[in-house]
Backbone:
RNA sequence: CCUGACCAGGAGACC
């Protein structure tokens, strides 16, 4: 049962639901029955790929098959509603789920706070945070990190760091995501020097920088037109065995374009296509824009044509 | 005894 669970989960993560169902068929032929894990994998997968309707259908049918929805299922569906923008429907659903203890879960609050932050409503998000504490719940690392990210996106460095301090005071240990969010709040203000300080701090805490953190740093330096440091971080990244992805490359290309180093930008563009990366519209836009700004329409059109030849359509 | 499911982080123009 567990092995099938792992495989079903894998297919659901990939969005290959028919393969997941094939496996369920197979296990039933071997007189095993899907349990709550199989259902939640399917429901979560459907939600991630935007098939909330299918997820809800499964939720209805699992009960008739003798498998009771649990907290994880309820949270998954609530998140599914909210991510589809169906916030009211999500709360209506919540109202019917008190039995599974959903109102006592920090996951529920994290989902609401994340939704508010995405809409740039950190004031409201902060109120939810306080409500959570008032109700005697302890915000966890995800809740703190989510709200810190919300502040970062609204350029509220001070609030981000105050919350970080509060988190530490409550004994919640920051992870790589928390630090990345703090660093982004600094980079968004062009304070790459301070960002570097926190980068060193987190490594001193024993955390290992990952691809996203490196890319955040690189992006910050690129936006400051500090290509020396951006490149230095790219090299550090590779030295530490991390492979840049298309986002990392696009940041660097953008940085070189904005620094008017078109030879370097083209060098990278060439390099990554030869490495088999699939460029996207965000990879090409900085090149086209730089040529437009220079008034070099021929080159701009050439890049545009090259982009379309690769089957990428402009947005 | 061990193993499977749920929430948070990175890129482009203009404004």
Residues:
């Amino acid at each position: 049962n567990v092995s099938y669970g792992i495989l079903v989960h894998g297919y659901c993560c990939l969005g290959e639901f028919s393969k997941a169902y094939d496996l369920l068929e197979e296990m039933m032929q071997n007189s095993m029955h899907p349990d709550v894990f199989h259902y939640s994998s399917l429901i979560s997968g459907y939600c991630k790929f935007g098939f909330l309707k299918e997820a809800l259908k499964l939720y209805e049918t699992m009960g008739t098959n003798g498998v009771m929805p649990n907290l994880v299922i309820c949270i998954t569906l609530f998140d599914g509603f909210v991510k589809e923008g169906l916030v009211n429907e999500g709360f209506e659903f919540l109202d019917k789920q008190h039995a599974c203890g959903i109102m006592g879960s920090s996951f529920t609050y994290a989902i609401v706070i994340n939704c508010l932050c995405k809409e740039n409503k950190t004031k409201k998000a902060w109120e939810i945070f306080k409500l959570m504490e008032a109700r005697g719940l302890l915000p966890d690392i995800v809740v703190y990190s989510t709200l810190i990210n919300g502040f970062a996106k609204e350029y509220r460095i001070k609030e981000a760091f105050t919350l970080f301090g509060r988190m530490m005071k409550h004994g919640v240990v920051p992870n790589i995501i928390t630090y990345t969010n703090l660093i982004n709040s600094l980079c968004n203000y062009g304070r790459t020097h301070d960002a570097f300080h926190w980068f060193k701090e987190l490594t001193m805490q024993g955390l290992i920088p990952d691809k996203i953190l490196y890319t955040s740093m690189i992006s910050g330096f690129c936006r400051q037109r500090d290509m020396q440091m951006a490149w230095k971080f790219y090299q550090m990244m590779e030295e530490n065995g991390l492979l840049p992805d298309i986002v990392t490359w696009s940041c660097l290309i953008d940085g070189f374009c904005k620094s008017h180093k078109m030879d370097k930008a083209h060098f990278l563009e060439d390099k990554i296509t030869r490495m088999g990366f699939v460029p996207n519209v965000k990879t090409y836009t900085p090149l086209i824009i730089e040529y437009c700004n220079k008034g070099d329409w021929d080159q701009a059109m050439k890049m545009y044509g090259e982009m379309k030849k690769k089957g990428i359509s402009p947005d």
User: Anything to note?
Assistant: The two ends of chain A are 45 Å apart (CA to CA).
